[in-house]
Every structure is written in C-alpha cells, then in structure tokens.
Amino acid sequence: MPPSGDASSSTRKPRDRDIDVYGLTHPGKVRKDNQDHFLIGSLSKRLLVDLTSLPTDSPLSVEPERVASIAMVADGVGSGGGGEEASREALQVVAQYVAESTNAVYGSGADEPEAFAQVLAEAAMQCHARLVERTGRDAGRTRYATTLTLWLGLWPEAYLLQVGDSRCYIYREDRLTQISRDQTMAQDLVDQGVMSRTTAFRSPWAHVLSSAIGGQQAAPVVTRITRDWGTVVLLCSDGLTKHVSDERIAERVAKLSSSRQLCEDLLQDALDGGGSDNITVIVGRTVRPVDA
Amino acid sequence: MTARLPGQRSSAPVLPPDVDLFGLTHQGRVRRHNEDHFLIASLHKLLQVQQTSLPKEDYVQLVSESSGYLFLVADGVGGIPDGHIASETALRTIADYVTNLMDLYRRLDPARDLEFLEELAESVRNSHRILRERSQREHGGNGLATTLTMVAVLWPRAYLVQVGDSRCYRLRDGQLEQLSRDQTVAQALLDAGALTPEEAGRSPLRGVLASAVGGPDASPYTASDDAKRGDVMMLCTDGLTKHVTVREIAAELKHMVSAELSCRRLVDLALERGGSDNVTVIVGRLRPKETGMPASDGVSETAGAPPVAP
C-alpha cells in the first residue's frame, strides 16, 4: 500500500495511485465472435513548450495531473459483422471527441453540467450519424449499431452517458444501485405500465433496444452523479446481467479485494450461468491510503 | 558570443495555422551573460489509454489541440549568483504552477475571471517565496531577483500578470498600447508627482525596480481583457525599450509579416543602437479569419468559436 502523509485523504481528490480500475471482455461460451469493446483511460493536462530559452536538459513540467477518468463499454448489435466494427468505431470516435471537446465546454456560456451533458450527447449523436451513414452506404447489407455506456469521472461529480442497454451500477454504503436506465422496449413497456417487470424481462422485448448508436433511433441520456471515496463503479454489457443477478453482483462487490479480482469473479459467474453472450466488465474504485 | 538565438524547441507541438508565435533572446553587445529567459507554451489535454480491447496501434494517447497559450519573459537582476538563475527558476516554478492551475474542464465564467487572475498572481507570489527562501538560505537575502511578465491567453480572454519592468504591449486596430506598468522607483515618483515625465526619463532611478520576484517586495500588477482576432501581443525586456521607441515598435507590428521576422528585426534594431543590455522579445498573434471580407468591416470576432477548435 502506498504510504500516506495526508490527513485529509477522505476529502481530497484521488491521485492516480489511489485509483484501482480494471476491465475485461470475453466472447462467452456460445458466440464465436466478441462484438463488445471497452476502453479505460485518463484525461490530463499537459504543458507543451513551443519555444524557450531555458536549457532543455531538465524537463520543464511536473507529471501531468489527471483531470478526469474515462471508462466506456460498447456492445455491438449490428448484423453481417457490423456489430464489432460499430462498437470499435463508437469508442474511437467518442474518445477523440471527448479529448478535443473541452474547448467547447470552456467559454460555452451555459452552466457546467448542461455544457457537459451537451458535449457528451453530441459525441454520441456524431457517432450515430457516422454509423447510420455507413449502414446506408452498404445498402443495409451490413448494419452498424452499438450500445454505449460512458463514465466520465471528475471529482466529486461524474457524468454518465447512456445509449442502449449496457449498464452502469454504483455501490456505496452497502447498496448496489443501477444508475443507467435500460433503453429497451421491455423497459419502455414497464415504464408505461403496460407490463410488469417480471413479465417484461421474460418477453421477447427484453433485449430489443429502443435506442442505439447507429440504430433506428439514438436517444442519449446524460446523468450527473456525485460520489465519494469508497464508491465502487461498475460498467457492463448485458452478457453479464443476463446471467448474474443484481443481488449476486452486490454480494461480490461487498467482498471486493481488487477491481481485477471482482471483474474476474463476475466473469466466471456469467460463464457458469451459461455465457450466452459476450461479457464485458469494468470496475473502478478509489482506495484510501492506509495510515502508516 | 554565446547568443541563444532563438530558443530551442524542446518538443514540437504543431501550432494551428492561425496562430503565429515567436520568441528570441540575445545577450546584447555589452553584457557578458544573458540573464533573460523566455518561455512560450501551450496547454493541451491528453487522453491516455490504460486498458482497452481496441487494437492499440496509434491509440495509446490522443493529444488535443491547444486550449490556451502562456507567454513568459523574465529579466534576472545581476549579482551573485547570476541573474539567469533567478529568471530560470521563476519561469520553471510558474509554468508548473499554472499547468496545475488550469482545470481545463472548468469553464471560466465572468464571475470567476477575477478569481482566475488572482490565481495567476498567486503563481508569481509562490515563485517569489521560493526565490526568497533560497536567497535567504544561500545568499544572505541578496540576489535571486527577477522581473516577470506573463500573458495567458485562454480564449476568449487574455490575462496579464507582471512584476518589475519587462513590458507587455498590445497592437489592436493599429494602436499600440502598453498593458504593463513599469514597477520602477522612477515610475513611482512620477505617479506621485515628485518627478516630471522628462525627469523620470532621465533619472537613474528608472532602472531601479520597485518590485521584483525574489526581491524585498513583489507586488504583481494584474489585468484582464477580451482577446480579439488580429491582436498582436508583444512581451519584451528593457534591453529592447532602452533602444527602440514605442513608435518604432508600433510601426514594426503594424506591418508585421510573421512573428519571427518582427522579433528578429526588433532585436537587430536594439543591437544596432548599442545593445547595452540583454534583449528578449516575444511576439504572438492570432491571425484574422480568412473570410474574404476585410478585417475592418466592423464585425466583432471577440467571442464565438475558440480560435483553435478542430
């Protein structure tokens, strides 16, 4: 464990060494291909020297400071091999957009949460337009569509972008909460009071997306969350939740020893339950430095 | 002669085509050392991929286009140790501080404008404390003093923080304006009415700093204003203004071809006229948009899109 010299570790912003994040993806036991993709990264500030009289033998700047953590899961749902390409392209386009878009947030005139919601929704819609165009070029022979769940972690607030039915959970104070709302026909029917939860999730509508990037419709939803030290964040594709219940996930998180261990345990649970779909899991948490 | 002409490019970020920046320093014809330093830097955002299922080629990191520029000029006060130690230390400590200061995800709303300017001034005070401590520890409280003039451009605002007598000028709409205030004893006496402008211009006190980073007193002067396309910003040490008049600077910048050429011509002029001190010049310009319309059509380009957005 890293040493601590910091009395205010419960309130200060986590540093890189305090962050324990891991992700994995697996094709499952039935599908031949893996159409899921994930990405974990950090955004930092860096000063690049354009021109100086200073001697360059000693580097100018300190280590770049983390501005935000980013984690994304995309579950490709196209046909004709388009699913994998769609999820890959979605992550690439959105990563690029988020890296470039701070200039838009900066000086936008809107208030900050609104500006963020706008940037993230725009990233999704830009990607949607690209995939729709690609499907159109292929005259519908190949369909390029994907879910996208993106966590952008500032501190203490975070933003969640949701399109489709990959999920985001947070675990805090011994409780697991699903933050994302499934954008499926079944969920829509439940929300409209047409079906009960149990009936809906057994129905053929359970996994039909009502919104997808590159699909008939993309309706990105951005949620703002505030979190603190000790909150565990979990992102996953439905390959996990088809086989592993929320209760089981909560039990696993309660016994978490490392993000990697939790990812591997959950993956094993999904495979043991049948592994009928591709499985992707990302777990992230902050680890308080242990007092010496 | 070991002139540093120009500074080295330590890394090579590609500047957007509408940004034209250059800096130059020369020890002059009389002094044996160059105690000036300058720094031109741009702030970027970096996406580092830690783990992914994507094919990793050319994907480990993405660097954003610049979201801000920083110009720094420092003129170290000679003595023991050499003035260049103070000017170098000031630039390094300020650059570090400012990098961590700018939370590029936080929009700067007008209400926070002053707060941000105050934080920039704090970066200079921090540098002052570092130099002061070192001076007291190693040199009995003497030496390790420097001027410092800093301009930070975070579109659409420009911020100035200045200590000492290195200057900042802005050319806008054909008019040259000195944005900095000389912090010299002569200027203080002039402001107090104790000297006439003529007396102040001749006074030996015009070279005595009333405020210096690392000196007995450092009182940063701060200002902020909108940035506009077509503005030319120039920072310089007094090695330039000892020999080159404001009128000549205005004429050079009005007919500017490139930042590099203007820097070279201004430094050459100071050298031709004696080069009695170290000379440093930074010139930065955001070119007007190529819209096919004359720049003087009255359309304000103050706000709107960031200048270097993709």
What does this structure look like?
The complex is a heterodimer of chains A (292) and B (310). Chain A is an alpha+beta fold. In chain A, 30% of the residues lie in helices and 26% in strands. In chain A, strand 4 (148-153) and strand 5 form a beta hairpin. In chain A, helix 1 (82-100) packs antiparallel against helix 3 (112-137). By secondary structure, chain B is an alpha+beta fold. Chain B has a single domain (19-45, 63-285), classed as 4-Layer Sandwich (Phosphatase 2c, domain 1), CATH 3.60.40.10. Helix content of chain B is 29%, strand content 25%. Chain B has seven helices and eleven strands. In chain B, strands 3-2-4-5-6-9 form a six-stranded antiparallel beta sheet. A five-stranded antiparallel beta sheet of chain B has the order 1-11-10-7-8. In chain B, strand 2 and strand 3 (61-63) form a beta hairpin. In chain B, helix 1 (83-101) packs antiparallel against helix 2. The model of chain B is unreliable at 1-13 and 291-310 (pLDDT under 50). The interface between A and B is large, with 53 and 65 residues. Strand 2 (36-52) of chain A pairs antiparallel with strand 2 of chain B, so a sheet runs across the interface.
Oligomer: heterodimer
Which bin fits the share of residues in helices of chain A?
25-40%
Q: Ranges of chain B with pLDDT <50 over ≥5 residues?
A: 1-13, 291-310
CATH fold title of chain B: Phosphatase 2c, domain 1
Distance, first to last CA of chain A:
10 Å
Name of the CATH homologous superfamily of chain B: PPM-type phosphatase domain
Give, in spatial order, the strands making up the sheet with the most strands of chain B.
3-2-4-5-6-9
**Major beta-sheet overview of chain B:** 6 strands, antiparallel
Helix % of chain B is 25-40%
Strand order, largest beta sheet of chain A? 1-10-9-6-7
Low-confidence stretches of chain A: 1-9, 103-110
Q: How many separate domains make up the residues of chain A?
A: 1
Biggest sheet architecture of chain A: 5 strands, antiparallel
Structural class designation of chain B: alpha+beta
Total individual domains of chain B: 1
Q: How much of the polypeptide of chain A forms β-strand, as a percent range?
A: 25-35%
